[in-house]
Amino acid sequence: MIDQASLLNPAGDGVTGLPGHQFVSTQGLALDCGLSLAPYTLAYTTYGQLNADRSNAILVCHALTGDQYVAEPHPVTGKPGWWDILIGPGKVLDTDRYFVICSNVLGGCMGTTGPSDVNPATGEPFGTNFPVITIADMVRAQAQLIDHLGIDQLFAVIGGSMGGMQVLEWAARYPTRVFAAVPIATAARHSAQNIAFHEVGRQAIRADPDWCGGAYQIAGKRPHRGLAVARMAAHITYLSEPALHRKFGRSLQAREQLSYGFEADFQVESYLRHQGSSFVDRFDANSYLYITRAMDYFDLAAEHGGQLADAFARTPTRFCVVSFSSDWLFPTAESRVLVRALNSVAANVSFVEIPTDRGHDAFLLDEPEFHQVLDGFLSGSAELRGLGRR
Amino acid sequence: MIDQASLLNPAGDGVTGLPGHQFVSTQGLALDCGLSLAPYTLAYTTYGQLNADRSNAILVCHALTGDQYVAEPHPVTGKPGWWDILIGPGKVLDTDRYFVICSNVLGGCMGTTGPSDVNPATGEPFGTNFPVITIADMVRAQAQLIDHLGIDQLFAVIGGSMGGMQVLEWAARYPTRVFAAVPIATAARHSAQNIAFHEVGRQAIRADPDWCGGAYQIAGKRPHRGLAVARMAAHITYLSEPALHRKFGRSLQAREQLSYGFEADFQVESYLRHQGSSFVDRFDANSYLYITRAMDYFDLAAEHGGQLADAFARTPTRFCVVSFSSDWLFPTAESRVLVRALNSVAANVSFVEIPTDRGHDAFLLDEPEFHQVLDGFLSGSAELRGLGRR
Question: d(Cα A139, Cα A131) in Å, to the nearest integer?
Answer without folding.
Answer: 16
